[in-house]
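Side project, low priority. Logging it here so it doesn't get lost.
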Amino acid sequence: MADRIMHVQLKSAYDTDGGPAWITRVRFTRTWRTAYVHGRTLKRVTGTYRANFDSNFYDVDSGEGFWISGPKRDRTDGRYSAQQPPVDPDVRDEYNAFLAGAPLPGRASG
């Protein structure tokens, strides 16, 4: 499985970018269709399932929609807002190095 430091935001039941978000470690399966984060199993949204118009993954247990994307160096991770999400302690050092210009682990170009 591939581990990546990602921006994750809960989209269901919140307006636009109003849901809670995190910079956290996400584990992806080989096919990148399933993600594991904060004890949740998330499946990639396909044309047959739409938990929320603005989500690209959904929780298989609750059906809640999530947006998962790579973090941005300028910390504008929210799609429509300037929200700066908290950084999980276990990724803080790698994330701070990324903000200073280093590539993220598993990504040669950052």
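Brief comment: The chain is about 5% helix and 30% strand.
Revisit when time allows.
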